[in-house]
Sequence to fold (315 residues):
Amino acid sequence: MDTPSASFARLVPGMAGMALVGSSVTVSRTLVDAPLFTTQAVRYAAATVILLVMARLAGARLVWPRGREWLWLAGIAVTGLVLFNVAVVRGVDHAEPAVIAVAVACVPVVLGVVGPALERRRPSRQVLLAAPVVMAGAVLVEGTGRTDAVGVAWAALALACEAAFTLCAVPVLGRHSPWGVSVHAMWLAGALLAVLGVTWEGPSAVRELTGAQWAAVGYLALMVTAVAFVLWYSTVRAVGAGRAGLLTGIAPLAAAVVGCFAGSGAPRPSVWLGIAVLILGLVAGLRPREVPAGHVAGTAPSTTGGPRSPSVRNR
Fold:
């Protein structure tokens, strides 16, 4: 039997990580007019340096990728980091931000089905029942909006990229640990974004950043990237992608709370209803459950040697 205290302890890092992601919404608004690729390249480069220092202080062992691991790690960088940000930015040209957010709110359902398959186990009925509830709560919190066919396509891409951010990490978390997966995904994304930045925005684009934007990049690099990535992947490794996926519902909750303190006013009645539904789904899906003797709940088998959602999340 998975005790409540043990189960909750494994969820805490992911909960904290999603809370940090939710808090980034208000900060990210500062970067709306900043050059996209250049800003993100600076962010991930800074986050890589920060995380290398943190890993050394924590005594974490980092190893160089080998074989197919390069594909999984590149998948995180290309889809979960680079393409996700492109999909969000391009998507809001054709759809209201809430449309993209609604698409991303479907992530718990995708992770609940695909995550266990990558971990070579059956989907949890408990998670599959709770995921639509969490998704419905997120939609109520974030609202809906108008869009066109192109906007729907960008929203679908954002959903796929958000799911890939977690799913591509499953096969490599065992050998590389949350520290290693985060470091390698960051520097790969940073290098790709730097090339895109120089090509599309020019080498001088970094000079366009204002003081407030530099401060925003610093916060995103430290808290929403270096810290949140390790926290999130720690929970994914501990409880599995499917169960961890439910925690993405915490991001819109955090965004709503931060919005209140940032001067957005009290949430609308629909938001309060969404918060209640979200909490119900989280409680139903994350409560401890009985597991077979000798098996640790949520531990994913290894395939390589070992075992975002507010209005517009800026990962």
